[in-house]
Amino acid sequence: MGVFKSDPVQVKIVDQPLLCQICRHPSFWRRNVQLNTRTAELFSIEWTDSSAVAYVCVRCGYIHWFVPT
Q1: Helix, strand, coil percentages in the chain from 3-state DSSP, rounded to 5
Q2: What is the pTM of this model?
């Protein structure tokens, strides 16, 4: 996939390997994503919104979202 600049990775969440919820594949591309709100976009201050990590399955493309705690 052209939008991913890094190599696929295998991930552990709470000491358990992450497997795709759709196809059970263990490899993912990692993306940092911005969680924009309508209010922030209205005032052009999207950079103040929270961010999350998304792992995209290499095989089927399903996106797994995680918000840092």
Answers
A1: 10, 35, 55
A2: 0.74
pLDDT tens per residue, range 3-42: 667 799 999 999 999 999 999 999 999 988 877 655 645 5
Q: Whole-angstrom Cα distance, residue 67 to residue 56?
A: 15
Phi, psi torsion values for 18, nearest 5 degrees: -80, 125
Contacts of 57 (CB under 8 A, 6+ apart): 20, 22, 23, 25, 27, 28, 63, 64
Helix (H) / strand (E) containing 42: helix 38-42
